[in-house]
Amino acid sequence: DAGVTQSPTHLIKTRGQQVTLRCSPKSGHDTVSWYQQALGQGPQFIFQYYEEEERQRGNFPDRFSGHQFPNYSSELNVNALLLGDSALYLCASSRPRSGYTFGSGTRLTVV
Amino acid sequence: AQSVTQPDIHITVSEGASLELRCNYSYGATPYLFWYVQSPGQGLQLLLKYFSGDTLVQGIKGFEAEFKRSQSSFNLRKPSVHWSDAAEYFCAARPPRNKLVFGAGTILRVKS
User: pLDDT digit string (tens) for A27-36?
Assistant: First the structure.
């Protein structure tokens, strides 16, 4: 049974560019959450998707947007990249009364 | 403000010694509580979770955690640490129907 799959694993982008990160949830999970983890810090909540809608959002600017598809997979889009957006981006899937299952993350480097 | 606090940034223990990592939460009602482990450059692996019931929770890799409502704590323990346990450990809390919030993490070093 595959867990959470994220792609790509690594990415290098230039300031001002746009990026799309992808996530396939664990089988049986219907909720996807995205987190940003800067070096040396704990993961920070970006937003959560359920039934193809953004259900909750953390303290991130509108440059961060997302989408959930009917098969529960999800995308995270970041526009107008800044150097400070360099981080490990983690996707987690869940269902009611379950822990979150995390993917291995996408390491984004903005140069 | 609702939060999760891990007071220890780094902890070093000798291989074979016991381990306790501290976690305190600040929420109006008892949230769901979790411990995750992260190896460098990797994602987060769930060690154990507490929703309700028995306050002593058993997890994977020989870890356990005890929920203490009076102290708003959920400390992680292991009787005998192995070198492979060296990693970063995150405590996390989630009020029902709300997002999962992480502490800042505790880096565990194991010396032989």
Answer: 999 999 999 9
What domain range includes position B74? Answer: 3-111
Residues from A in contact with B at Cβ < 8 Å: 4, 6, 33, 35, 41-45, 48, 56, 58, 88, 90, 92, 97, 99-105, 107
Enter the DSSP assignment of B72: T
Domain CATH number, residue B27: 2.60.40.10
Number of domains chain B contains: 1
Taking CB atoms and an 8 Å limit, are A102 and B45 in contact across chains?
yes
- Give the model confidence (pLDDT) of B73-90 as tens digits: 999 999 999 999 999 999
B70 to each of A22, B19, B22, B26, how far by Cα in Å?
Answer: 42, 22, 15, 12
C-alpha dihedral over A54, B36, B3, A34, to 10 degrees? -20
Q: What CATH number belongs to A5-106?
A: 2.60.40.10
> From the CA of A7, how many Å to the nearest CA of chain B?
13
Task: Name which of A61, A95, A57, A67 is nearest A81 in CA terms.
Answer: A61
Cα–Cα distance measured from residue A55 to residue A111, given in angstroms and rounded to the nearest whole number: 32
Angstrom distance (rounded) from CA A59 to CA A2: 31
Cβ contact (<8 Å) for A103 and B43? Answer: yes
